[in-house]
Specification:
Blueprint (H helix, E strand, L loop, with lengths): L2 H17 L4 H15 L4 H5 L3 H95 L1
């Protein structure tokens, strides 16, 4: 017998013993004590609760705990799946972004290299033109003073 059941039996017996000549306040006190132990059940329900009922309650509690455990497992699996999907999406976005950045970098470097070559050619061409002009001037100077 459980401690709670023993306490209920003891209080029930005390109520029986006092019910003949006990004052109302003592009966109310004992009834209140019994109610606080038993909750909202009546004294009769508690006293007559069989082991079968207790087993039914235990089975229901066990089934509820199993259901909670299954729900927990399902929820954790869904969270893990969402995490994996999110990480995969992040990695895909990262790879795509890095590829686009590398392509843009290569394109921009090629454009800069082309502009550099164009500018060097323009400078060489201008230098050659100016060199020819100076060479002509030096030649003219040499022929006059030379």
């Amino acid at each position: 017998m459980t401690i709670a059941k023993e306490a209920v039996y003891a209080l029930h017996q005390r109520l029986k013993d006092l019910s003949i000549n006990a004052p109302a306040d003592q009966l109310a006190y004992l009834a209140k004590a019994l109610e606080s132990i038993a909750g909202h059940s009546t004294v009769y329900d508690i006293v007559n609760m069989s082991d079968e009922k207790l087993q039914e309650l235990l089975d229901a509690a066990t089934a509820h705990l199993a259901s909670l455990n299954t729900a927990k497992t399902t929820s954790l699996s869904a969270i893990d799946s969402a995490k994996t999907t999110s990480i995969d999406a992040i990695n895909t976005t990262k790879t795509t972004s890095l590829t686009a950045l590398q392509t843009a970098t290569t394109t921009n470097l090629s454009l800069l290299d082309t502009r550099k070559d164009t500018n060097i050619s323009a400078i060489d061409s201008t230098a050659q033109t100016q060199l020819q002009a100076l060479t002509g001037l030096v030649s003219n100077f040499a022929s006059i003073y030379g």
